[in-house]
Amino acid sequence: MLKTKIKASSITNLTDARYFAAWEAEWLGFNLDPGTENYVSPATVQAMKEWVDGVKIVGEFNQQEARDILTSVDILGLDAVQLGTFASLETLQALHAKEVPVLQELVVEEWSDLSALATQMEARSGLAAYFLLDFAKNGLSWAAAKSNVLAELRQLAEDFPLLLNLPFPASEVEEVLEQTGAAGFSVQGGEEEKVGFKSFDELDDLFEALEVFE
Asked: Of 13, 17, 77, 82, whose CB count within 10 A is highest?
């Protein structure tokens, strides 16, 4: 059992899928946007689903039409979908109408973006189950966040359910949880060193710090 929710994002191989499932991550995310980095085919997702239990399967999309996303939801039995930063409000509304849980990704380009992102979240409040703030794509880290936007980030977490992709040392996980009030974190695996083998040393440190002993 973990202290907070974890979404494993952009999984491309069974080794990662089984690793995150074993640690009881809340969600396993698969990129279903053809032509983009880390894309996996629906057939591959279906095959990997057979090897994991107890996790929610998320299809990750960018700007696909709602009807195409809903087709994937039906074919793959997705538990939720993640929409990219530029997905339309209409797409979110269509998915909400079909009772499909949505994780809305919002990429933070610079610290001053947070106020504008708050406006976006307000417009989507009640339609998205969680907002995934991605600081990592632009090299923004927890160390810098503490000096720049901690109060703003804390306020967002009070107003909206937040998942953070925000790099920090595993030794500081308690501090991040306490000071941000986030609902959870988004993490990402990587390529296998060879089929069926890879090192999880860094992720092991994080999950060990999050583990709750009963």
From this structure: 82
